[in-house]
């Protein structure tokens, strides 16, 4: 989960509903004056489009159209109980959202659980993407642990009110009142079937990094200095398997896009510029 520092939309960022071949998706979109490329940004577990909002105007200023969205059943994107909440289904949604951008191919980035979705989307249709970036993500399941009791959350969803689950997760955490209210509203808005499936996928998603590498897509892998999700050595080995190295963003933990957006851009933008110029 990323925790926004502010809920105010930056200048040049629009909150839209994107009509796609797979239904409507709530999105934040920034458009460059003379775009040279497009980037699709996929948020993670219990997150939303707001997790990437701070970097959208920075991308637009660099000439890159940018779209981030709530995944199926997340926050302001509706989800029905019988929807497809597999990694393949979430990947199909990513492809459908990217198709609304007006660009033939897009840079693809996923944060945390969104990185698992991005890997699947890269494997399913590599021709749709210029490259793949993974932020604070890993090669498959994160797994259950005493500090991250995902199995207990899976068991509780549908039996315990979502607000109660959220309050237990936030117990003892002090935040600005506006952010506290937003986090509760966002968590409760999740479709239970979507949240349950995403949580289960964090427990048992397969490692498909070798399949991703086989696509030949250029890859960028980064994390915050104090990232507390996938172990740092696991992320570094994943980067090596993808033919790159880990980029560490200072003054950030699991959510560099909100904790240090300028630091993330400094580490990431040269990669994007290199690859959209090669094809553009």
Write the layout of secondary structure elements.
Layout: E1 13-20, E2 23-30, E3 37-42, H1 56-61, E4 64-69, H2 87-98, E5 106-111, H3 113-124, E6 129-135, H4 150-156, H5 162-169, H6 177-189, H7 192-204, H8 209-214, E7 219-224, H9 232-241, E8 246-249, H10 256-259, H11 261-279
Helix pairs in contact: 2-3, 4-7, 5-6
Walk me through this protein's architecture.
With 280 residues, the chain is an alpha/beta fold. It contains 11 helices and 8 strands. Strand 1 and strand 2 (23-30) form a beta hairpin. Helix 4 (150-156) runs antiparallel to helix 7. The radius of gyration is 17 Å and the shape is globular. 47% of the residues are buried.
How much of the polypeptide forms β-strand, as a percent range? Answer: 15-25%
At the first level of CATH, the class is Alpha Beta
**Helical element count?**
11
Second rung of CATH, namely the architecture: 3-Layer(aba) Sandwich
Q: Class by helix and strand content?
A: alpha/beta
Helical amount among residues, as a percent range? 25-40%
Shape: globular
In what order do the strands lie side by side in the largest sheet? 1-2-4-3-5-6-7-8
Using the CA coordinates, give the radius of gyration.
Answer: 17 Å
The major β-sheet equals: 8 strands, mixed
Core attributes:
18% strand; 280 residues; Rossmann fold; 11 helices; single chain; alpha/beta; eight-stranded mixed β-sheet
Short description:
With 280 residues, the chain is of the alpha/beta class. The chain has helices at 56-61, 87-98, 113-124, 150-156, 162-169, 177-189, 192-204, 209-214, 232-241, 256-259, 261-279, and strands at 13-20, 23-30, 37-42, 64-69, 106-111, 129-135, 219-224, 246-249.
């Amino acid at each position: 989960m990323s925790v926004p520092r502010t809920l105010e939309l930056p200048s040049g960022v629009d909150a839209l509903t994107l009509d796609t071949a797979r239904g409507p998706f709530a999105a934040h979109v920034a458009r460059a004056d003379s775009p040279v490329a497009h980037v699709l940004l996929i948020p993670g577990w219990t997150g939303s489009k707001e997790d990437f909002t701070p970097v959208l105007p920075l991308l637009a200023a660099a000439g890159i159209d940018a779209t981030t969205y709530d995944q199926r059943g997340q926050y302001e994107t509706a989800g029905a109980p019988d929807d497809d909440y597999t990694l393949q289904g979430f990947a199909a949604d990513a492809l459908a959202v990217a198709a609304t951008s007006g660009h033939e191919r897009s840079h693809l980035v996923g944060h945390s659980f969104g990185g698992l979705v991005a890997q699947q989307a890269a494997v399913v249709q590599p021709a749709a993407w210029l490259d793949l970036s993974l932020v604070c993500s890993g090669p498959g399941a994160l797994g259950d642990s005493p500090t991250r009791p995902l199995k207990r959350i899976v068991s509780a969803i549908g039996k315990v009110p979502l607000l109660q689950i959220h309050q237990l997760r936030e117990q003892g955490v002090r935040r600005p009142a506006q952010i506290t209210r937003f986090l509760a509203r966002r968590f409760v808005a999740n479709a239970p079937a979507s949240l349950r499936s995403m949580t289960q996928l964090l427990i048992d998603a397969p490692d498909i990094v070798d399949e991703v590498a086989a696509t030949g897509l250029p890859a960028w892998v980064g994390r915050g200095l104090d990232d507390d999700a996938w172990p740092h050595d696991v992320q570094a080995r994943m980067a090596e398997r993808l033919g790159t190295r880990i980029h560490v963003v200072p003054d950030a933990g699991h959510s560099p896009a909100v904790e240090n957006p300028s630091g993330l851009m400094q580490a990431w933008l040269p990669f994007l510029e290199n690859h959209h110029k090669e094809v553009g």
